[in-house]
C-alpha cells in the first residue's frame, strides 16, 4: 500500500483541500483508495460523506489499522499542530509526504521549520519516504512563489505544483467532488497545474 501523508502544522495551509483532491485523482485513475482523516474537525470525512454515489469510490478508514491492506493507496489528512508522537506515528505510515504551503510570510516561516524537522527524519534521509511541497493558493512568478523557492533552495526539496486560488476547489468540495470529478472543461486550468504532482505521486 502506498501512503501519502498531507501535513503542515499550520492551520489553513490547504491540507484538506489537497488531501481530498489527491484521493479524487487516484479514484478517477481507477485506484483503490482510502482516506484517513486524523483531524478532529473531520472535514475530509465530511466531504467523503457527501460524495455522490456516481463518483469513483473512495473508502474511508476509521482507524490506521482497519483493513489498510485492502487499499492500494491511503491518503492521510492531518490536523494543524501535528508534532511529537502524533507526527512520529503518521511518519511511520507514510511513503510520501506532501506539505502544502500558503502564500504568507508567516506560513512560509512555519512551513520551513516543519520541513527542516521532516528532512532530519531517519526515514526521509534514507529515502524510504519522499517529501514534496505544494504552493497552495499560489501562482508561479509571484512574490510568494519566489520566496518559497528561496526558502526551499537550502533543503533540496521539490515543488510539486503551484495551485492557484480559485472557487473551483471550493465549489467542488460542496458536492463531495474533487477537480477530477468535474467535467474537464470546468477545471482545465487547474488540471494543467496538477501534471507534475500526478507524476510524482505515481513514481516509486
Ligand atoms: N487553491 C485554493 N483555492 C481557493 N481556496 C482554497 C484553495 N486551497 C485552500 N482553499 C481554502 O482555504 C481554506 C483552508 O484550506 P483547508 O484545505 O481547509 O486547509 P487546512 O486543512 O490545512 O486547514 C479553506 O477555506 C479552503 O477552501
Ligand atoms: Mg484540514
From TrEMBL:
The domain of life for this entry's organism is Bacteria
User: What is the name listed in the Swiss-Prot or TrEMBL entry for this protein?
Assistant: Cobyrinic acid ac-diamide synthase
Q: Which organism is it from?
A: Candidatus Gallionella acididurans
Residue ranges spanning the membrane: these are none
Spell out the InterPro entries in the cross-references.
CobQ/CobB/MinD/ParA_Nub-bd_dom, DNA_Partitioning_ATPase, P-loop_NTPase
Record domain CobQ/CobB/MinD/ParA nucleotide binding: where:
4-177
Amino acid at each position: 500500500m502506498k501512503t501519502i501523508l498531507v501535513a503542515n502544522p499550520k492551520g489553513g495551509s490547504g491540507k484538506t483541500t489537497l488531501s481530498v483532491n489527491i484521493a479524487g485523482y487516484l479514484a478517477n485513475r481507477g485506484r483503490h483508495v482510502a482516506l484517513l482523516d486524523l483531524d478532529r474537525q473531520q472535514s475530509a470525512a465530511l466531504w467523503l460523506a457527501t460524495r455522490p454515489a456516481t463518483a469513483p469510490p473512495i473508502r474511508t478508514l476509521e482507524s490506521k489499522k482497519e483493513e489498510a491492506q485492502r487499499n492500494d493507496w491511503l491518503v492521510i489528512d492531518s490536523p494543524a499542530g501535528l508534532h511529537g508522537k502524533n507526527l512520529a506515528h503518521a511518519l511511520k505510515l507514510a511513503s510520501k509526504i506532501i506539505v502544502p504551503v500558503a502564500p504568507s510570510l508567516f506560513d512560509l516561516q512555519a512551513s520551513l521549520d516543519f520541513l527542516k524537522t521532516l528532512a532530519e527524519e531517519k526515514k526521509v534521509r534514507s529515502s524510504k519516504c519522499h517529501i514534496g511541497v505544494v504552493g497552495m493558493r499560489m501562482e508561479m512568478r509571484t512574490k510568494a512563489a519566489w520566496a518559497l523557492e528561496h526558502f526551499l533552495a537550502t533543503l533540496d526539496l521539490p515543488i510539486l505544483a503551484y495551485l492557484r486560488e480559485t472557487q473551483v476547489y471550493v465549489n467542488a468540495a460542496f458536492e463531495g467532488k474533487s477537480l477530477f470529478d468535474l467535467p474537464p472543461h470546468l477545471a482545465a486550468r487547474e488540471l494543467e497545474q496538477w501534471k507534475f504532482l500526478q507524476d510524482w505521486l505515481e513514481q516509486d
